[in-house]
Every structure is written in C-alpha cells, then in structure tokens.
Amino acid sequence: MTVQLNETHDLQLRSWVQSANQLNCDFPIQNLPFAVFRRKGSHQPYRIGVAIGDQILDLPAAHAVHAFAGYTELQGGHFTAAVNAQTLNGLMGLGAPVWSALRLALSRVLREGSALQGTLHACLLPQAQAEYALPAHIGDYTDFYTSIHHATAVGKLFRPDNPLLPNYKWVPIGYHGRASSIGVSGQEFHRPLGQTKPPTVEEPVFGPAKRMDYELELGIFIGQGNALGTAIPVEQAESHVFGLCLLNDWSARDMQAWEYQPLGPFLAKNFATTISPWIVTLEALAPYRLAWHRDAADPQPLPYLDGESVRASGSFDIQLEVLLQTPAMKTAGTAAERLSLSNFRHSYWTVSQMVAHHTVNGCNLHAGDLLGSGTQSGPAPEEAGSLLELTEGGKKPLQLSNGEQRVFMEDGDTVILRGWAHKEGAPRIGFGEVAGTLLPARQI
Amino acid sequence: MTVQLNETHDLQLRSWVQSANQLNCDFPIQNLPFAVFRRKGSHQPYRIGVAIGDQILDLPAAHAVHAFAGYTELQGGHFTAAVNAQTLNGLMGLGAPVWSALRLALSRVLREGSALQGTLHACLLPQAQAEYALPAHIGDYTDFYTSIHHATAVGKLFRPDNPLLPNYKWVPIGYHGRASSIGVSGQEFHRPLGQTKPPTVEEPVFGPAKRMDYELELGIFIGQGNALGTAIPVEQAESHVFGLCLLNDWSARDMQAWEYQPLGPFLAKNFATTISPWIVTLEALAPYRLAWHRDAADPQPLPYLDGESVRASGSFDIQLEVLLQTPAMKTAGTAAERLSLSNFRHSYWTVSQMVAHHTVNGCNLHAGDLLGSGTQSGPAPEEAGSLLELTEGGKKPLQLSNGEQRVFMEDGDTVILRGWAHKEGAPRIGFGEVAGTLLPARQI
C-alpha cells in the first residue's frame, strides 16, 4: 500500500475551532483522531468523538445534522449504525475507503469557512469536560517485541550469556496478551501479588511485586480483519490497520523473571495494560512515514515480510516520551518529569510486518483487535522505554530533579506516555497521553 | 468449596428419553451438559440445548412451556434472557446457585414419570440432526501446562540438558492463547505456513509446517468472573467454574521450536484450537472427584494454592482418549484408531489452583473465558497426549493396525478426543467428542 497525501494533509488548513490552530496543539485539523467519550460523570452511553483542538466533535450528532451528506461511502444503515455505536469496532470494520472518506468530510466541515460551522458548534464538547472508555471492544490482544535495542538490553539482564536470541532478526517475535485487563488512560491498579524468587533464597516467596515497571509502546488497532485460514499479505497489511494509540505494558519484573520460562510472561503482565483514548489514523500519519531498511550485515527479511512499500515507507517518525509524577511531585504541585524520549523509527520490524507475520499461518484478526509494538527503546541508553533498562536492571538509581530517586516504581507513582509526529513548520500530529497510577498492594 | 452429592446424582435415576438409559451412553440423566445448537443446515439462530441420551432438549423451548416454574432461582428477566441467548455467557454469569437449580429442575422433568414428558417431547431434537457453534463467546483464552509428565517429556526434546524448569513445581505455568481461532468440533484447518529452522541449515526457511501435532486437553469454562484488581481464593475457585469440555490444542512443533523463545508459543498454536460442543458441569462430575496430594519429596503448594477442599477433592477422575482416522481409514470405512488413553487425575495442578493463580495478581476473568488444562499426559509412555511424546520427538514412528505409520500428522488426518468419567455399575458421565481435520497447506 503506497502512502499518499491529499488535501487533508495540507499544512495551511486551519479550523474554525480556534484551539486547533495553536502551535503544538496535539489535535490540529490535520490529525482528527477517534475516541469514545461522554460528559464527565453523566453516566450516559459512550459516543464516538473526533478530537479537534481542545474540543471533541460528537460524531453521531454531526451525522444527525447531515454533516457527511454527499459522500457515497458515508451513507446507509451500516455507516449510521457504526457511527452511533458505543465502540469504534463497527467503523473499524467498514474499511479504509470509509475511514478516508470520513476524514475528508471531517476535514472539510471543520475548516475555516465551512458552511456548517454554526450547526456543528453545537456538536462540540470541551475535552476538559469529557471522560473516555476503551475505544473498542478488544477481542484479542497481541504484544510484539520489535525494538532490538530493548530486546538486547533486557536479554542481557535475563540471559547474560545469550542476550539476543538467534530467531530475533528473522521472526517478528510476539505473544498473546490479556485483553480483559486493558484499561483507558487514568487506570489505577494495585501492585500485584504473586510469586517471585529472589536470587538469595532457595524457594520462591509470595507477596507484592518489588520491581514494578512500565513499558513505552504504541498500540495498533486492527480495522478490517481476515477470515480464519487466510493471510494478509505484507503489502496489503496497512489497509487493515485503523490507527495507532499509546500503550503502557505494565510489568512486574521480579514475577516475570521467575515465571516466564518456557511459555512466556503471564501474571507479570496481565494485571493491567493502559492505552490512550485517542486513536490516530494511519492516514493522519502519512506525512511522517520513513523508508525502512535492514542493515546489510543483518539478515534481510524473508519474502513474506518484504516488499516495495515496506522498504519505501514502512517506518513511522513518531516521538515517544515517558514522564513520571511521584506522590511528592503531586503534593508539591510539580509537573511530571521526563524520564526518556524515544522514537518509533527505531523499530526493527514495521507495523505491516507485524500484521503479515501474525496472519501468515491463517490466524484471524478482527476489527478492534489490538497489537502492541513492544517497548520502543532507541539506540542510546537514555532512549530506553522501561526502568529495567534505564536503571540497568535496578543497579543504577535514577536521580530525579526534586532530589528523589527511583529504581523501580513506588506506590502512588503516575507514569505518563506521550507521543507526537512533528516537522518544523508543520502542525503536530499528537496522540495525547496515557496516564496510569500504581496503588499499594491489596491486603492479603 | 466442598463437593456435595444430591438427588441429581442418584445412580438409579432413569429418563423417559430411553436412549439416556443405555449402557455407556455419554449423556444419561446424571450428566445434563450444555451446548448451543440448531437444526443442521437451518441457518436459524443458535439456541441453548441440554444433552439427554441421543437427543437435545431445547432449553428456551422448555422454559417457554414453564418447565422450570416453581424454582425461585429460575424466574425473572435475567434468567429468561440468559436461556434465550445464542451463547451460554449469560447463564454462565448467573452463578452456581442458578446452575444448580437448573440442573435439579432438568433432572426432575426429564425423569421417568415426569408429568411434563408429553409437553417436553416436542422440545427434543435428535443430536444426529443438529449442528453446533462455540458454546460461549470466549473473551480470553489461557492455556496451562499442568501435566508434569508432558512438561518433562517435551522439556527433554526442547531442552535436553534442562527438561523440567525450576519454577514448574511452584508455579501453575500458563500463557495467553488466541481466542479468535477457537472452533467447535468438526473444525478443518489448513496446515499452517511459517518459519522453521531445520537443525541442518544455517538460516530459517518458509513453508508448510512439517511436524503437525495435537494436544489432548480439557477446557475449563469460567462462570462468574471477578472484578479487575480482586482475586478468587483457591477455596472459592470452583464456584466460578461453569464446567469442562474437551480441547485440542493443535501445534506445529517445528514452528514452535524456532519461535518460542523468549515469549512463548505464538504462530505454532494460534491457527486453530478445537473444543467439544458439550460442556459438562462441575456438579455432574461431583461423584468423580479425587483427593489431591503432592508427593512429600516435592515442594508443597504455597498457601494461596493450598486448602482443605483442594486436598480433599481437588482432582478429577476423567478418562481421556485420543483417536486417529487417516484418509486411508476413511476410504476403507475403518473406524478411528486409539493412539492413547490418559486421565485428568494425573494433573500436577488442580482446576481450582489454575483459577486462583490466574487471578492472584488481580487479573480479571469473565463469564465464558476459557482455560486449557495443558496436554494431559499420564506417567506411562503410552498415556502421552501428543505425537511429539508418542514418537519421541519424531524418532519412533507409530505403527497403525492397517499397516500405515505416523510420525506427525499427515494431510487429511482427523484426530478425535473423547472423555468420560465412569465407575463400575454407574452411568457414564461423557463429554462426547471433539474432532478436527488437517487440510493441506494453502498455495502460497
């Protein structure tokens, strides 16, 4: 699938929602990400919304006032049902031509000078007055492991003699995660209880995990799926992807080290995973695509993972940031402090390769399924996407600017991930943020 | 939770459905398992049914003629909605007192002499005229690894120097599986394509898997779940289990060997998993419970996995059988041939321990979630639940009675799993069967 720019990407576009035109706004008219929302505390059903500046356009309300009249892809009962649903699954399942037509229609009606400005003004809710739910019903969740820098750094800690396994450069390694415990930004979760085996003792002990960590990831929402027994070719894979969000794959490292062999992580991960409410479409990210290549010294991808468009534009230039706000910072009213800054461009495998690999054996994906990219650590140590890496396995505490230190997370810590694509002189395509807070362990 | 017998377990009970009273019938009146079914080829919505002899009682139809009047647990809109649904999730979510009341009501109206015999006769469909769907919407699927005999035998093949890992006797090892590719008995699937690395070559190759295998497992359907952040204590775990079914965890061993480190099996398993249509309730299995104990030489379970009822009756005496029907047998009209016979009593971990372990970190389970028991190999080599074990890693071909041999599965092979609980002089509590057929690989 070739990445193409169209009138929705025009850098000069401005919205009649003035906040969308401000410098460094995450949600300019060139972005138009999707979420499900409702008025905070209203207990009403959730509705699909589109971010514009600091507002949310209520999509079913806009449809009801005929904002999308005149687009053949945006007519009929299926579209109306999808727009009026409480999750994005229906819209995801309608496919790329519908997503693209909707983006074009939204871009036009939200532009300065739109005849519908007066009508649509009544369909806005300030984001400050909204609360969010998971954007989709997530049938299955798969987590990949696509940063070679993360895999190497973590491998050194878990297997000092054998950090990067022989399959890594051939196989986009992934595993199935737990869908039921995925929550939306703002999720709070208790420090998990479980088994760990400290190296100094003979037998495992039961209690709260001591080595609590985050993982800086992107989430990939599947749009149209594939039938069981069929595969999605790598060159068609992106037409099956609805968009990207931020994802924090919370991890209890001490539980992980004890349980993960031979079948992979389980209780060390499945107590909580948090994603951002906003899904940024691939079309919005089209100007921020990069060529993908594999170093000549490394194995080239097998044919089912290779292709012209993979090479031409398989990567994404998305900045990814981790911030920490400790209880002391909250008390002092101090803003969250940056722990690291990385970029999705460092990923060893592309989104299209993840989708093609996942389905090459006939495994079926459904609209709303979620793939995690794996921790996106960059090549430099300060670009690491987890505390495990930043503290070298807990040996080198992080010094915070208020005098505190962290080795792993402490109770009450809030971790915030942010992401954005940006070029000089262009609007910023932002992901907003995903925040999550570690609560103390439950009493046993 | 203590296992108790009641009037529904009476060995003398006979049904007015005469086929239920025949020796070795899987579905006597003491069983009463649940499925969702419809008349074959009817394209009608699926309905909940209860097996009795060679018939299916249409549960919504029975409810509509007031078969369950007089039971307070079986009144009201929630119950009616659950009975009239196209999956068992609603009924599963209603909880053990409702399941138990329904079992009692069904036992009474299906007994010889029931005043409702005439009315309910019209609510029967012969199983031979039915087709089945998955009994529940499976939100999340987790596969355990509870046979120490399987873990040791497989460990020897994958890690000759380190067969049983140090965590095995402490942790009920499990991992997340793929829910989307689970199908009901009769599932046909193509030999999966993917990467393998034969030991004789330097680089992996892409193509059809060569070492196709089955795994003999039980499936455990969760009834009422738990809220995220809470745990299900081991002594209450069984009240959260709706029942058991048969499960075949198809496996591509050559893909598994190449991909499984460090995050576990992925494409080697997620192309298909097949379960039986019938779910046998824990209450039906109450007479077949066994004491569970841990050899004194082994570590005793940590307190969160231990309890009086675990010790008193944690195990199940369920016979598990694997049969193979090759294309040559089908052509010759020969019945499927037994490959092995095992028993769930050999499981190193109990169902209650699996549930307690899965939730001890706060992970939430939902009604309809499925747990796999892991391959149930017994202590003797001929009790092995996979070809990998029976052929010692593909080195020792199996000799079939028609002169054929098998190392791994060949295209067109059908594998059938059966299960039953039985005591001399008592009716048999059967699971029916789960069959699945390997089709040739798709053309690339």
TrEMBL record, chains A, B:
<keyword id="KW-0479">Metal-binding</keyword>
<keyword id="KW-0460">Magnesium</keyword>
<dbReference type="InterPro" id="IPR036462">
    <property type="entry name" value="Fumarylacetoacetase_N_sf"/>
</dbReference>
<dbReference type="Pfam" id="PF09298">
    <property type="entry name" value="FAA_hydrolase_N"/>
</dbReference>
<dbReference type="InterPro" id="IPR011234">
    <property type="entry name" value="Fumarylacetoacetase-like_C"/>
</dbReference>
<dbReference type="InterPro" id="IPR036663">
    <property type="entry name" value="Fumarylacetoacetase_C_sf"/>
</dbReference>
<feature type="domain" description="Fumarylacetoacetase N-terminal">
    <location>
        <begin position="30"/>
        <end position="135"/>
    </location>
</feature>
<dbReference type="InterPro" id="IPR005959">
    <property type="entry name" value="Fumarylacetoacetase"/>
</dbReference>
<dbReference type="InterPro" id="IPR015377">
    <property type="entry name" value="Fumarylacetoacetase_N"/>
</dbReference>
<keyword id="KW-0106">Calcium</keyword>
<keyword id="KW-0585">Phenylalanine catabolism</keyword>
<dbReference type="Pfam" id="PF01557">
    <property type="entry name" value="FAA_hydrolase"/>
</dbReference>
<keyword id="KW-0828">Tyrosine catabolism</keyword>
<comment type="pathway">
    <text>Amino-acid degradation; L-phenylalanine degradation; acetoacetate and fumarate from L-phenylalanine: step 6/6.</text>
</comment>
<keyword id="KW-0378">Hydrolase</keyword>
<feature type="domain" description="Fumarylacetoacetase-like C-terminal">
    <location>
        <begin position="143"/>
        <end position="419"/>
    </location>
</feature>
<protein>
    <recommendedName>
        <fullName>fumarylacetoacetase</fullName>
        <ecNumber>3.7.1.2</ecNumber>
    </recommendedName>
</protein>
